[in-house]
Amino acid sequence: MHEGKYALSTGYAAGVTPEELSEQVRGALSDLARSQGLTVDIPEVVHLERPRNRDHGDYATNIAMALAKSAGLSPRDLAEALCAVLSQWPGIESASVAGPGFINIRLDTAAQGELARTIVSAGEHYGHGTLLAGQVINVEFISANPTGPLHLGHTRWAAIGDAIARVLAAAGATVAKEFYINDRGVQMDRFGASVMAVAQGKPVPEDGYHGGYITDLAAAISAQHPEFALLDDAEQVSAYREAAYELQLAQQQQVLELFRTHFDVWYSERSLHESGAVPAGLQRLREQGHVFELDGALWLRTTDFGDDKDRVLIKADGEYTYFASDTAYYVDKRNRGFDRAIYLLGADHHGYVNRLRAVAACAGDDMDANVEVLIGQLVKITRAGEEVKLSKRAGNIVTLEDLVDEVGVDAARYSLIRYPADSPLTLDLEVITQHTSDNPVFYVQYAHARVCSVLRNAQDLHIDWRSADFEPAALSTEQESALLGALGQFPRIVAGAAELREPHRIARYLERTATAYHRFYDNCRVLPRGDEPVTEEHLARLWLCAATRQTIANGLQLLGVHAPERM
User: Fold this and answer.
1) Got the DSSP string for 434-461?
2) Which residue range(s) make up the domain with 99?
3) What is the three-class DSSP state of 392?
4) Which residues contact 531 (CB under 8 A, 6 or more apart)?
5) Which CATH number belongs to the domain containing residue 26 in this structure?
6) Terminal CA-to-CA distance of the chain, rounded, Å?
7) pTM for the complete prediction?
8) Residue 514 included in any domain
């Protein structure tokens, strides 16, 4: 078979995705209301479901039941009238009423099959949408001290926060990913004193930092800066503190890049104070009338907006509180042009939810629209049912680097993202490192690699499916229809993950889609055997394979997980 033998078919319109079908139902409702003089409050989105029994059709909706009262009709009468309009729309084979007013919709086989070409043509943009277009969002998902390695809690947010930012961007938002460096306060002096003590051969102070990484830092700094030993103790603490800060922050940045979590902004708490942003933020709060003085201290009346108590901004001795930094940091984000500030905080920060919402309100903002706080739960690592500590250099904690060394970036990211962030999580190392279908990340990646293998085999047989006549109506089996239905759901899944800040929905979707592909592959012969001629069915199935590969790759990309071509 020679390249270029097949001519491109142009006999069909773009494939009908669930989103496009939803718009068709809305259009049919508008036509019906106009022709019959009905008053109907048409929703922005008509929700569709895939019936469990495919004999009932490709999609179902209860829209007639929801709108019947406002239309002044019984649900069944409205459903029948709507079905009569829908049945005339291109791409819809039939629309019928079931029960008290459910509408079952069956797509024309060709229209449904054409979705494969729509997906392949869209490429890496398939699944992207405009739900959040025009929104400018700041996602701050790690706030850490530069005094040690990033621990397992940071690791969960490094994966989930990055995935949230990716799906927000896929939904049309302009997103900045931000890391807040807690580089101000007594912990920095303790850090410097710990490194200095080890460099001097002395015990680490009781309230200092312990672990092999402190020894590593002390050795590196002593080698680079032997002159530090000539300084007096006060100068040495400062010198070791700043040098250790630089090295430890660089280590955090390096391991996050290894983890495929790239931050657009590394925001220093020090810079917040040095730039004058803290007094500027307090002035904004004063102007809104929520700042008051009591017992020589300056307070913010956050109880006006749901906080459990008012908060001190400046103590009686004139020192700014950490909360003053929090308020100034929020105001600074808004001054930088962000419509919404999303904070991802750890399980011990529940008190910050109302506190940060109150800060937004005290600054004159809408605390529902301009600020959002997500709380993540703890992660536990087990092997053979027993909790394990992986740390090599950081004392009694599990670090991001430890987990990646143990299981790899793909398994770590996927496993951390696969579950809702607000649920406690236990990762079984034996499961997430298996190369079997029991391991979800392997199962999805294997589906992608399997599709790639089929497409390579087609190339080896010189089947130029891209240039061939594509007959979407040839995709007519139950397994093909189920796979097309799964692929068509992807844009809705991405939009929902973005709107709800739940990237685990994409992981679960990919697993369902992988299952649909494996069933299709096991039941539908894709490539000809021996001297069999290449039929329109083979070609259509290759388009479906390519559409599946693209969809799985796009989904894995949103999770920051590789889509391997061979396994």
Assistant:
1) --STTSHHHHHHHHHHHHHHHHHHHHHT
2) 18-113
3) coil
4) none
5) 3.30.1360.70
6) 29
7) 0.86
8) yes
